[in-house]
Amino acid sequence: MQLKKLLLATLLASSTLMAVESSEGAKLFEAKCSMCHVTQPPQDMSKLVAPPVFGVMRHIKMKYDNKADALAFMRDYVINPDAKKALCKPQKLKRFGVMPSQKGNVTQEELAKITEWMYDNFPPKNFHGGMFRMQQQ
Predict the structure, then answer these.
(1) 2-121 falls under which CATH superfamily?
(2) pLDDT tens readout for residues 43-55
(3) pTM
(4) CA quadruple 58, 62, 60, 92: dihedral sign
(5) Can you tell me the distance from the alpha carbon of 43 to that of 127, in angstroms, rounded to the nearest whole number?
(6) Other CB atoms within 10 Å distance of the CB of residue 121
(7) DSSP character at residue 102
(8) Are 57 and 123 in contact (CB under 8 A)?
């Protein structure tokens, strides 16, 4: 019986910790990334300065079939971006260019929280590719 209570307490604590880290990831994304990467379909595509996060994550998840590899790629790319590593379509790379390195702008701890949050939340389940092909729920 004590073992069950301990297990239940551990599960509750870890789910609370995950929720806190998730919200920390969202806050960090807002502070560090949202000035370039939007999280909603834009009203005016001409004002975009970088690909929206749902498209970025779609390409990452298409390339990396497990979370650990996807997160490792993301953490590396943010600090050491290179056109040869880019996963977006060539026309997007031509339009937006290579992401500037965020070395010095984000710590490894912050980056871990941001990338985890991005992976867990994007693209939304109703996103099927393309800027305006998100289906209404």
Answers:
(1) Cytochrome c-like domain (1.10.760.10)
(2) 898 999 999 999 9
(3) 0.77
(4) negative
(5) 17
(6) 16
(7) -
(8) yes
Tell the burial category of 26 from Cβ atoms under 10 Å away from its Cβ (0-12, 13-18, 19+): middle
pLDDT tens across 108-121, in order?
999 999 999 999 99
Closest CA to 100 of 44, 33, 48, 41: 33
Q: Token digits for 17?
A: 């910790």
- Kindly report the three-state secondary structure assignment for every residue of 39-97: CCCCCCHHHCCCCCHHHHHHHHHHHCCCHHHHHHHHHHHHHCCCCCCCCCCHHHHHHHC
Question: 2 exposed, middle or buried (CB, 10 Å; 0-12, 13-18, 19+)?
Answer: exposed
Contact partners, residue 124, CB within 8 Å, separation at least 6: 54, 134
Q: Is 125 exposed, middle or buried (0-12, 13-18, 19+ CB in 10 A)?
A: exposed
The identity of residue 86, as a single letter, is A
User: How far does CA 122 lie from the centroid of its chain?
Assistant: 6
